Amino acid sequence: MFGRHGGAGCIAGAVLLPLEGPGYQAVDCSRRRHYGHPALVAFIGDLGRAVAARELGTMLVGDMSQPRGGPMPDGHVSHQGGLDVDVWFRLDVPALPRAVRDGIAQPRVVAAATGRPIAALWTDRNAELVRLAATDSRVSRVFVGAAIKRDLCERAWPDRAWLRVVRPWPGHDDHLHIRLRCPLDSPACVDQPALPPGESCRAADLAPAFARERRERARPSRPVPDRVLPRACDEVIPARGAPPPPRA
Question: Positive or negative CA dihedral for 76, 217, 90, 182?
């Protein structure tokens, strides 16, 4: 892959995730966004098997990257280098044919009125899904909503070191966004900065995240400026043109 990890980039040699496997099924398959670095595909398979072994339900795999990465026409700012995947919080959807896995409801698990997770939608199984992702050594970040991070912090975990990997970010009340570290075979990939020490669970740590979410909800949607792709991407995506501004 080429580019700063989590920002503008592309990927040569991306592979298609098998659209169903033990413990998971891909959703919105018609979007053709289930490509990634082989390390990401292997990680998703491993996570799905862990979900199945713990009988948590069926993991729903959303957007990864396009076949050659790069900005999506109507999607994320990230997900460009083949190392990001969205996993929905829903674990209650049975195995379905691919043809009917587009447009499945993706509910927010946090109540707007209280700012707290909804008990019927956010359970111990969902929390365990986040923990499984965050404890994998291949994972750099797991992004969730601020209320989800707070709930995870308030739980009594035997091992709490993985909470440091879970970072609050707006727009993640219905899914977790998993980002892998740069693989060893991708020297052009630049990892994100090191995480700050500690669990980031104090009220003072979480307050900026809640404030950022309030600002995001209050402001009207606006185009996000295009990011300049690395020059090497001209060979990987020779006809990429100028895509519409992505959503945040």
Answer: positive
Q: Can you tell me whether residue 24 is helix, strand or coil? A: strand
Please state the domain extents for the chain.
Answer: 2-218
Q: What is the pTM of this model?
A: 0.90
- For 16-60, what is each residue's pLDDT tens digit? 999 999 999 999 999 999 999 999 999 999 999 999 999 999 999
**One-letter amino acid of 127:** A
Could you tell me the two tokens for 16? 């298609």
- Pinpoint the alpha helices (H) of 31-80: 38-53
Q: What is the pLDDT of residues 160-191, one digit of tens each?
A: 999 999 999 999 999 999 999 999 988 888 88
| Residues ≥6 apart with Cβ < 8 Å to 179 | 5, 6, 78, 83, 84, 139, 140, 141, 142, 143, 192
Taking the domain 2-218, which CATH number applies? 3.30.1380.10
Residues sharing a CB contact under 8 Å with residue 128, sequence separation 6 or more, in sequence order: 54, 56
